[in-house]
Amino acid sequence: MKKVLKKLPDYYLTFCVYALIGWLYEVIWLWFVVPPYKFVNRGVLLGPFLPIYGFGILILLFMLDKFMKKKHKISKPLYLVTSVFTVVTFIYVTIVEYTTPRIYHVSEFLSKYGIGLIIANVVALVVVYLILKNTESKKFKNLDLTVILVFLLIWIITTAIEYVSHFMTDKLFHTMLWDYSRDFLNVNKRINWDASRNFAIGGTILLYTVQPQLEKALKKIPKDRKVYIALLIGIPMLIDLLINVIIKYVGLLWKTKVITSEINIKGKCLETDTYFFNKICT
């Protein structure tokens, strides 16, 4: 516990760096990749931060730090099966995405291509197993699968974080920051294949390239200066968050009050555009 408290400034500055990187990623993505190609200040904050990315990286670091430092060899059945499943599924679904008509929901994909996915995984697993059994190459038998396994774990963790974050911002801030209802392999509009894939690729790259350099840079900064920098960034961010919460709740409460006061339809329900009530019945 003491170690965690001592590293709080490091954790917070790490959070801020990746919250900024996440904000830049989404702004650039919307500006140059997604029509109508315009600047959008992403997130619930006024400042250039997306907290979901900061929290996401911290969760990944806490959960995967020890795992990343160990070697996970192909000779272990669990690592072999998991790695083959990850690679084959990634390739199979990517091919389906770009060669078939758009499939929006996961259930639709599984009903059409689930059997093919299972067969592809079984065939790939048998091939790799036979190669492993008949080869005398020590390099192949000692092949480290850690990166592939980390990639899969990041995929699972970041997808879960995105789903929970969407749900929480929807309920707490009454804001849908994204809507994947028209995207490939979405689940309840909250997560989809492309976003999860990008998070897994991006998270793997960040953990193996950016994070080591960031840790080296933070070690060079004196502890007292880290505290000052953290406060310098943290106080405005907290004010930003409080202002946003007040504006959202006051605005929606007023809006709901106006709508409910103007409705007078006996025995009928009127759908509203507020998140406090999906329908107002009189």
Structure description:
The structure is a single chain. The chain is an all-alpha fold and 282 residues long. The model is unreliable at 256-282 (pLDDT under 50). The protein has a domain at 64-222. Helices cover 71% and strands 2% of the residues. Strands 1-2 form a two-stranded antiparallel ribbon. It has nine helices and two strands, in the order αααααααααββ.
Strand and helix layout:
Blueprint: H1 2-6, H2 8-32, H3 51-69, H4 77-99, H5 106-134, H6 138-141, H7 146-172, H8 193-220, H9 223-262, E1 269-271, E2 279-281
Antiparallel strand pairs: 1-2
Helix pairs in contact: 2-3, 2-9, 3-7, 4-5, 7-8
Q: Per DSSP, what share of the residues sits in E-state strands of 2 or more residues?
A: under 5%
Structural class determined from secondary elements: mainly alpha
Q: In this structure, how is the largest beta sheet organized?
A: 2 strands, antiparallel
**Poorly predicted parts:** 256-282
Structure annotation, total helices: 9
C-alpha-based Rg, rounded: 23 Å
Overall strand count: 2
Residue-averaged pLDDT, rounded?
Answer: 84
SSE succession: HHHHHHHHHEE
> What is the first-to-last residue Cα distance?
54 Å
- Record the strand order, biggest sheet: 1-2
